[in-house]
């Protein structure tokens, strides 16, 4: 759908494309891309509030990358409606898990680390997510999983 490499024009095209919801999954991809452009200030003035809302809408409509980035926003308090760390952490893990369950190896590897570093370390959850990340191509997860099998 994008007809130009001019980022400002690309943002306008994406915004226009999200006004009417298409019958395919391109809608959520456009929302994710808009969030990505806004969080990094690509073709638009950086706006973390807009980025958060685009990621949220993409995630709520099933976009795997939208879920991943929304989880990151919550965990890092980027554009979130509240700065309550515990609530944001819970929301962040929820969205990472949605992305991970959809096969995103970055989210799977993140959850493996998260469960490894918790005070109430859960080796089963940690290994499960790391192994899934490894199976889905995450090189770091593959290395750690191989080391776990060796030892």
Using the coordinates shown, work out and report the CATH topology of the largest domain. Answer: Serine Threonine Protein Phosphatase 5, Tetratricopeptide repeat
Number of contiguous helices: 8
Radius of gyration: 17 Å
Strand tally: 0
> In total, how many domains does the architecture comprise?
2
Tell the overall outline. Answer: elongated
Share of helix among residues?
A: over 70%
- Strand content is under 5%
Broad CATH class of the largest domain: Mainly Alpha
CATH architecture call of the largest domain: Alpha Horseshoe
CATH superfamily of the largest domain: Tetratricopeptide repeat domain
Low-confidence stretches: none
Order of helices and strands: HHHHHHHH
InterPro entries: Sel1-like (IPR006597), Sel1_AlgK (IPR050767), TPR-like_helical_dom_sf (IPR011990)
Organism: Ambispora leptoticha
Family: Belongs to the sel-1 family.
Protein name: 8579_t:CDS:1
Give an account of the 3D structure:
The mean pLDDT is 87. The chain has helices at residues 7-17, 26-40, 48-60, 64-75, 85-101, 105-117, 123-135, 139-150. Helix 1 (7-17) packs antiparallel against helix 2 (26-40), helix 4 runs antiparallel to helix 5 and helix 5 (85-101) crosses helix 6 (105-117). It is an all-alpha fold and 151 residues long. The chain folds into 2 domains: 1-102, Tetratricopeptide repeat domain (Serine Threonine Protein Phosphatase 5, Tetratricopeptide repeat), CATH 1.25.40; 105-151, no CATH class. The radius of gyration is 17 Å and the shape is elongated. The protein has 8 helices and no strands. Belongs to the sel-1 family. InterPro entries: Sel1-like (IPR006597), Sel1_AlgK (IPR050767), TPR-like_helical_dom_sf (IPR011990). This is 8579_t:CDS:1.
């Amino acid at each position: 759908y994008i007809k130009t490499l001019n980022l400002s024009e690309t943002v306008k095209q994406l915004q226009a494309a999200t006004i009417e919801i298409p019958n395919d999954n391109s809608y959520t991809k456009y929302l994710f891309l808009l969030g990505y452009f806004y969080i990094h200030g690509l073709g638009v003035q950086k706006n973390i509030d807009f980025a958060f809302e685009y990621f949220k809408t993409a995630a709520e409509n099933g976009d795997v990358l939208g879920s991943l980035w929304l989880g990151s926003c919550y965990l890092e308090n980027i554009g979130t409606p509240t700065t309550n760390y515990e609530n944001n952490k819970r929301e962040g893990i929820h969205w990472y898990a949605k992305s991970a369950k959809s096969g995103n190896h970055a989210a799977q590897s993140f959850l493996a680390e998260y469960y490894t570093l918790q005070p109430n370390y859960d080796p089963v959850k940690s290994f499960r997510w790391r192994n899934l990340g490894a199976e889905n191509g995450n090189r770091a997860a593959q290395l750690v999983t191989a080391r776990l099998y060796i030892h």
